[in-house]
């Protein structure tokens, strides 16, 4: 009897092995990222940025969590989606909020002193220079290149910021008006960064299999500054060695 059970078990294992061997590769469901702290970036067609994520292209990718840093209870949630095309990279932030702390009325201002979302892109790890992009709830932007030498860094504004080097960006308020001080239930930011704006950074544009280091952030000022990050930080958003990894499909 034991011999019969053993024979049946071996036959079952053999059949299971054969089944897995003949499964088409695209039928296997992967529930993990290939590297810790990484995410796969799906490719899309270029589309219009509206500020509310209404493009159908966004349905083809999942939300990533941008978590509150520190030990405070997470009163608000923040999430982000990322896509890339032949010409640039797209981001969509969804921020739960109660009040729009946003008084600055202009681009290239210190937007990080009020409610803001930020993206840092480091395409080439061989050199400590990366691109930083910020946008406020009122849709003002701050695009800069950051050289960072062992923690000493400063931002440089893009030259000839015009034509096909311009970003596309739009925002929307949820549950209230998009005005300074408004009571809301949240806000969204959607933006497109053209690869031509990242010149002369190396490893641009990405192709299938390309890897970029990156991090995504939010700052909220409802009750003093609260910091959110996709990949955990210690003290500063500029800790590029803590960046995660974008893997382009």
What does this structure look like?
By secondary structure, the protein is mainly beta. It has one domain: Immunoglobulin-like (Sandwich). It has one helix and 14 strands; from the N terminus they run αββββββββββββββ. It has one helix spanning 2-22; strands spanning 38-43, 64-65, 67-68, 78-84, 88-96, 116-122, 129-135, 141-149, 152-153, 168-174, 186-194, 211-220, 226-229, 244-248. A hairpin with a 6-residue loop joins strand 6 and strand 7.
Which properties best describe this structure?
single chain; 249 residues; mainly beta; Immunoglobulin-like; 14-stranded mixed β-sheet; 1 helix; globular; disordered N terminus
Main beta-sheet strand count, sense and barrel state: 14 strands, mixed
Strand element count: 14
Tell me the series of helices and strands, N- to C-terminal: HEEEEEEEEEEEEEE
Tell me the β content.
Answer: 25-35%
Fraction of residues in helices? under 10%
CATH architecture field: Sandwich
Radius of gyration: 22 Å
Mean pLDDT: 88
**Large-scale geometry:** globular
Q: What number of structural domains do the residues give?
A: 1
CA(first)-CA(last) distance: 52 Å
CATH class: Mainly Beta
Chart the SSEs and their pairings.
Elements: H1 2-22, E1 38-43, E2 64-65, E3 67-68, E4 78-84, E5 88-96, E6 116-122, E7 129-135, E8 141-149, E9 152-153, E10 168-174, E11 186-194, E12 211-220, E13 226-229, E14 244-248
Parallel strand pairs: 1-4, 1-14
Antiparallel strand pairs: 2-4, 3-13, 4-5, 5-11, 6-7, 6-12, 7-8, 8-9, 10-11, 12-13, 12-14
């Amino acid at each position: 009897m034991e011999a019969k059970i053993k024979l049946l078990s071996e036959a079952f294992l053999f059949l299971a092995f054969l089944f897995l061997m003949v499964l088409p590769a695209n039928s296997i469901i992967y529930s993990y990222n290939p590297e810790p702290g990484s995410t796969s970036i799906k490719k899309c067609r270029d589309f219009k940025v509206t500020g509310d994520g209404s493009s159908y292209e966004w349905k083809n990718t999942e939300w990533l969590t941008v978590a509150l840093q520190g030990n405070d209870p997470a009163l608000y949630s923040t999430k982000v989606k990322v896509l890339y095309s032949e010409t640039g990279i797209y981001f969509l932030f969804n921020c739960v909020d109660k009040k729009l702390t946003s008084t600055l009325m202009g681009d290239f201002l210190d937007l990080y002193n009020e409610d803001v979302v930020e993206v840092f892109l480091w395409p080439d790890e061989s050199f400590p220079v990366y691109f930083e992009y910020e946008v406020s709830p009122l849709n003002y932007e701050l695009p800069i290149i950051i050289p960072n030498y062992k923690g000493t860094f400063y931002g440089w504004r893009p030259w000839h910021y015009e034509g096909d080097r311009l970003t596309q960006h739009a925002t929307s308020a949820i549950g209230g008006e998009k005005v300074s001080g408004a009571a809301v239930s949240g806000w969204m930011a959607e933006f497109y960064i053209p690869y031509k704006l990242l010149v002369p950074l190396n490893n641009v544009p990405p192709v299938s299999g390309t890897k970029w280091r990156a991090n995504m952030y939010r700052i909220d000022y409802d009750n003093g500054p609260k910091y959110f990050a996709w990949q955990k930080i210690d003290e500063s958003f500029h800790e590029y060695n803590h960046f995660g990894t974008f893997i382009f499909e």
